[in-house]
Amino acid sequence: MRKKKEEEGVQTCRALRVVLMHSTAPPPSRFNRRVSVCAEAFNPDEDEEDSEPRVVHPKTDEQRCRLQEACKDILLFKALDQEQFSEVLDAMFEVLVKPQDHVIDQGDDGDNFYVIERGVYDIVVLKDGVGCCVGQYDNKGSFGELALMYNTPRAATIIAKDEGALWGLDRATFRRLIVKNNAKKRRMYECFIESVPLLKSLELSERMKIVDVLGGDKADCFYIVESGEVKIMMKSKE
């Protein structure tokens, strides 16, 4: 009897060993990692209104004049009304840089959007472990919006070549005022296109191209070519 029980015990152990060997369930993780902000989905249509208080960084009259001058040609601000634009200016803060300062680094999470007031900045992209300069900002422009709009890591490193000045806008304010407002206006244009009988037969991709055109700067009318040819020309700012 005792020998029989020992044999049953051996068989049970073998069976248990076989089950463990063929089990596909992974072992439980010992860590509960926080998801990176770049992995968190952001949908301006679904995201609730930001309940955080309005951000205001005090500025002198001289600073505000310089900031307005730096922001006057920034495309992302064109769709804002005067009140929204004023709130953006209130929330922006001055950043002074020195030569070789890294304003942002490729692969980092996005924290701020930057507008250039003065200074030259190299755009460096890491390829096969080697940093390559692929472009340059020369005393004007803006950068950093893609990581905030699409929840992706920084696509490039921005390095100051000399002393300069930037104006930063925090992630939360950028999303609340810029991303949501642009999405709202885009929906308005989409509804307009869908209400025009002549345009209902267009494919979705074609309607979206019209929406992109309507979202341009200082458009006062909309043209449809019925016949003939149209030559498209763009005037350079240089």
From TrEMBL:
Where in or outside the cell it occurs: the entry states: Cell membrane; Cytoplasm
Q: Which CDD domains match?
A: CAP_ED (cd00038)
Residues covered by the Cyclic nucleotide-binding domain: 76-195, 216-238
Instruction: Look up keyword Nucleotidyltransferase and say if it applies.
Output: no
Leader peptide range in chain numbering: none
Provide a GO CC annotation, any one.
Answer: cytosol
Q: Keywords, A to Z? A: cAMP, cAMP-binding, Cell membrane, Cytoplasm, Membrane, Nucleotide-binding, Phosphoprotein, Repeat
GO molecular function ontology, one term from the record: cAMP binding
A Pfam family this protein belongs to? cNMP_binding
Family assignment from sequence similarity: Belongs to the cAMP-dependent kinase regulatory chain family.
Role: Regulatory subunit of the cAMP-dependent protein kinases involved in cAMP signaling in cells. Type II regulatory chains mediate membrane association by binding to anchoring proteins, including the MAP2 kinase.
Name of the featured protein = cAMP-dependent protein kinase type II-alpha regulatory subunit
Organism from which the protein derives:
Danionella cerebrum
UniProt lineage: Eukaryota, Metazoa, Chordata, Craniata, Vertebrata
